[in-house]
Amino acid sequence: MFEEYVSAFEGIGRPVGLMLLDLDKFKNVNDTFGHGVGDEVLKAVAGCLSEFARHHDVVARLGGEEFAIVVTNMSGQGLVSFAERIRRAVSALTIRVGDVTLPITVSVGLASSAPGDDCAGIFKRADINLYSAKQGGRNRVHAGAGSGIPAGTNA
What we know:
Elements: H1 2-11, E1 16-23, H2 26-33, H3 35-52, E2 58-63, E3 66-72, H4 76-91, E4 95-97, E5 100-102, E6 106-112, H5 119-135, E7 141-142
Parallel strand pairs: 6-7
Antiparallel strand pairs: 1-3, 1-6, 2-3, 4-5
Helix pairs in contact: 2-3, 3-4
């Protein structure tokens, strides 16, 4: 499906952005509070992502605590701003376990298509940027070199 989006939007000269999102320190949630609470966190995050995505964007859980959003027809700066709004919305989620409120944060790696791009290349750039967001301290959006997003647009 991602390939179809990239191909179709390349045909009309418009970008396709990819957001890879990974819940920060999610293993600690499962280890401390159990998988039932972890499932509730995943459901809350999935609901938040779906609420913020536009009707033609695609939100998917890739597995574990990793999600993706395919964002069509949005400039690099717009994609960074959109990702930052989503990052803030996830961090505002309230997950209560007894009298404890769990802090939920997400790291986001971005990439945007360029003419001639293939899906594997876009995904790899977004994944590298996700890794950079995590290495940079988590709870951040990263669109680094090679992301297809102009320099200076990191959130």
